UniProtKB/TrEMBL annotation:
SUPFAM superfamilies, per the entry: Formyltransferase (SSF53328)
Record keywords, A-Z: Purine biosynthesis, Transferase
Positions of the catalytic residues: 110
Protein name (database record): Phosphoribosylglycinamide formyltransferase
UniProt similarity note: Belongs to the GART family.
Catalytic activity: N(1)-(5-phospho-beta-D-ribosyl)glycinamide + (6R)-10-formyltetrahydrofolate = N(2)-formyl-N(1)-(5-phospho-beta-D-ribosyl)glycinamide + (6S)-5,6,7,8-tetrahydrofolate + H(+)
Domain called Formyl transferase N-terminal: residue spans: 5-183
Positions marked as site (Raises pKa of active site His): 146
Species per Swiss-Prot/TrEMBL record: Methylacidimicrobium tartarophylax
C-alpha cells in the first residue's frame, strides 16, 4: 500500500510512520511527501529519507487551497500512485475537488479526543477548559473540519502544572504510536476500499 503524506510543519508524525515501516510494524511504503510550505521540516526529513517531495504552488489564500491547486495536489498523488493519503500536520482545509478525487481515502490526526476541542491548538483549549484528560484522534477526512468518522483514539492525562508545551509534547508522543497503529489496521482490513461516506 502506497501512502502519500501531507504536512506543513516539522514532520514528527511522518518520522514516526517512517520508523514503523522500517521496523516492520506498518506494511506500507511512503511514495511522496507533499507540503504547502517550502521551508517545512517535513520536507527536509523526506529528502534525508530519499522520499520524493512536492511543494504546492502558492495560492492567494492562507487557510485553504484554490480548487486548481487541489486538483494539482490530486494529480501529484495519482502520479505517485498513492492509495491512502495521510495528513500529518497539514494546515490547509481540503475541500471538494481533492476529496472528490480521493473519496474516503484521506486520514487525519488531531490533538484532542474528538469531538471535543476541534480546530486550532486543541491542547490549549483542553487546558483552558480545565479538562483532566485529553488525547489524540485519527479520523477519516470529510468536508467538515475535524469531523469525519473516528478510527482510533489515545487518551493522555493532563497533569498538575502542565503548560501548553508540556501537554502538547505528551499528546504528540501518543500521536506517534496511534497513527501507525491505525494506518496498519486500515490496511489490514482494507478499510480504504469502502469507507462510509
Ligand atoms: C500534530 O500535533 C497533529 O495533531 C496536528 O499537527 C501536528 C503535526 O506535528 N494535526 P508534526 O509536524 O507531525 O510534528
Amino acid at each position: 500500500v502506497s501512502l502519500g503524506v501531507l504536512g506543513s510543519g516539522r514532520g514528527s508524525n511522518f518520522a514516526a510512520i517512517l520508523a514503523s515501516i522500517a521496523s516492520g510494524r506498518l506494511a506500507a511504503s511512503i511514495s511522496v511527501v507533499i507540503s504547502d510550505r517550502e521551508d517545512a521540516g517535513i520536507l527536509e526529513l523526506a529528502r534525508e529519507a530519499k522520499i520524493p517531495t512536492v511543494v504546492l504552488r502558492k495560492g492567494r489564500f492562507r487557510t485553504w487551497l484554490e480548487p486548481e491547486i487541489e486538483e494539482e495536489l490530486a494529480q501529484s498523488l495519482r502520479q505517485f500512485r498513492v492509495d491512502l493519503v495521510v495528513l500529518a500536520g497539514f494546515l490547509r482545509v481540503l475541500k471538494g475537488p481533492f476529496l472528490a478525487a480521493y473519496p474516503g481515502r484521506v486520514l487525519n490526526i488531531h490533538p484532542s479526543l474528538l469531538p471535543a476541542f476541534k480546530g486550532k491548538e486543541a491542547w490549549k483549549q483542553a487546558l483552558a477548559a480545565g479538562a483532566v484528560e485529553t488525547g489524540c484522534t485519527v479520523h477519516w477526512v470529510d468536508l467538515e473540519v475535524d469531523s469525519g468518522p473516528i478510527l482510533g483514539q489515545k487518551k493522555v492525562p493532563i497533569l498538575h502544572g502542565d503548560t501548553p508545551e508540556s501537554l502538547h509534547a505528551r499528546i504528540q508522543e501518543a500521536e506517534h504510536l496511534l497513527y501507525s497503529e491505525v494506518i496498519q489496521r486500515v490496511i489490514e482490513r482494507k478499510l480504504w476500499q469502502g469507507i462510509p461516506s
